[in-house]
């Protein structure tokens, strides 16, 4: 994450140079942001919220749009002064220009997969008739919009491979529109399903239709801000209008539940998972699709544990669960039995079990061992029968199966290894390459090391450190430290063109697997959420101190970066230790911890953050909420906030209010800017051209303030 570029587009500052010296105090002038006298009493505290008007939807509020335009103009004018920016963009474009394939799905002897030839804004869906068949283009979203911001999102072929249902995502929004294509002719059918969000596409065995999840149509002008309530599962029959779709499952008495449907490989059973937040706590409902009169029946009651289907054999369903197993295990349930008793197939291990799939006659179980993948094989009785031979230390994903066939595919990636696709035969254990991209660098030029550091309370935390093998670290190097630390999400080795460009130019990339994630199971997650959230921040600070203490970098050369919950992480840590960093890059962050649950998907996050409407949670949240803890009069690092006007996951008002708070606080001479992308959302579906532009801006800014650029 090839050879160094010559001339190096990110040249080093002279030894000992102060990056702040070239920008004298008082130089940075920001657009004025009007303040209001909004104050909300909460549990005996009057909480000022002077920039609440910036929560209004930028698409419909003229004042917010004018503020966004003024901020973007100021940020662009500053970025235009950075000499390394054009060279970084040029190198990013060259590095991005290599063929990339996704994991294939086999249906009816046809193989469906995504392919990007290098610089296409959106990946193109291809199909082959047979594994060795000639590939042909099936769906090319690059023709859907002039700016490349309309993307192909989820897609699912019917069991016989004759049709494919796919989701259209416009401008980065979480909303989807589902359409259907005839695979033989390549022609779209008339079917259209709207207001789909947080949904699977689950075909019936005979291919006459599919199950999906949607919300009611929102009120006018409220689609990107209103709370998501009354999720429901529907069945769409091919060739019929959406208003004829059959309601399959809903809980009108519990409007906060989400419902996602899955059909077993044999087509016999429909599984509906119901959840209320982001925690792995679900109820499971079963419907026998073989019976026209069958009614949904509850398999798992109460929102207490994770249940995830691995596969089915007749009336036996195999599940991954954390019931009595914080690091998860595999159990089986005979759904023909009224008792619904489970029996253990594979016991909990010291490693964290992440996913399981039934392929052929094998259970393929993917584990995390110190934040890297290990894939083990078991019989249906739970006997271990070896492991999948992975190419090295990294992350493996995939292993989906169809019917009773032993064939499956998986992807493997690492920090210095672009994603490769492999075919795996679960009967023979044979691994064969399907797609191995040829990128314009040599992975052997990079050194990947895993190390452990000690956090404030003595907890041992893993971190990966990656850089050019020949990099001189005697004086410390410009470094980007990345973190997330929330929602049971694990950070594992992953290839990034952007990170490669940073490292190729002499930078270090570090990734810390802090508490709040899922690297070590439920206990690791619990230790970094709710009242324990400060542990995530302490871990990240300790990661920075470790990098500095080991001589890898210095405070004057250290940048931190994170997105979404990671944006919150970066902003909170900057408030707590502004002296520790030269630069901060918070992206699409949750910045107002007292109002996050009032917009779109924010209500789900109370599982990790707590409910600001409850007194105990309120006091925890206000203690670290980024916009409520900016330390006026204290010198802060340089900050470049990034968000997008169509982000309906973490609404951009969070970042708008944070930027306004920083700019008004008098926190030193370094720039505190916001970059607001247009027709983009939380990240998914962002076109390649926009990604290159954004990273060129981020890396030029980080290079300037870590002493890498002159």
Task: Report on this structure.
By secondary structure, the chain is an alpha+beta fold. Helix content is 16%, strand content 32%. The chain has an 8-stranded mixed beta sheet, with helices on both faces. Strands 3, 4, 5, 6 and 7 form a 5-stranded antiparallel beta sheet that branches. It starts with 38 loop residues before the first strand and ends in a 5-residue tail after the last helix. Mean pLDDT is 93; it is low at 1-26.
Bulk shape = globular
What percentage of the residues does DSSP assign to strands (E)? Answer: 25-35%
Q: Total number of β-strand segments?
A: 39
Q: Which strand order does the major sheet show? A: 32-33-35-34-36-37-38-39
Spatial extent as radius of gyration:
25 Å
- DSSP helix fraction: 10-25%
Q: Give the uncertain stretches in residue-range form.
A: 1-26
Distinct helical segment count: 10
Cα end-to-end separation: 23 Å
Largest sheet: 8 strands, mixed
Class based on secondary structure composition and strand pairing: alpha+beta
Overall pLDDT level: 93
Write the topology of this structure.
Layout: E1 39-42, E2 45-48, H1 62-79, H2 85-96, E3 100-101, E4 105-107, E5 110-116, E6 124-129, E7 136-139, E8 150-157, E9 163-170, E10 176-182, E11 188-196, E12 202-203, E13 209-214, E14 232-237, E15 246-250, E16 258-263, E17 269-275, E18 283-288, E19 297-300, E20 307-313, E21 316-321, E22 329-334, E23 342-346, E24 352-359, E25 362-368, E26 373-378, E27 384-387, E28 395-398, E29 407-414, E30 417-425, E31 431-435, E32 446-454, E33 460-468, E34 479-482, H3 497-504, E35 508-512, H4 522-526, H5 534-549, E36 558-563, H6 565-576, E37 583-587, H7 606-609, H8 615-624, E38 638-644, H9 653-664, E39 672-677, H10 688-705
Parallel strand pairs: 34-35, 34-36, 36-37, 37-38, 38-39
Antiparallel strand pairs: 1-2, 3-5, 4-5, 5-6, 6-7, 8-9, 9-10, 10-11, 12-13, 13-14, 14-15, 16-17, 17-18, 18-19, 20-21, 21-22, 22-23, 24-25, 25-26, 26-27, 28-29, 29-30, 30-31, 32-33, 33-35
Helix pairs in contact: 2-3, 2-10, 5-6
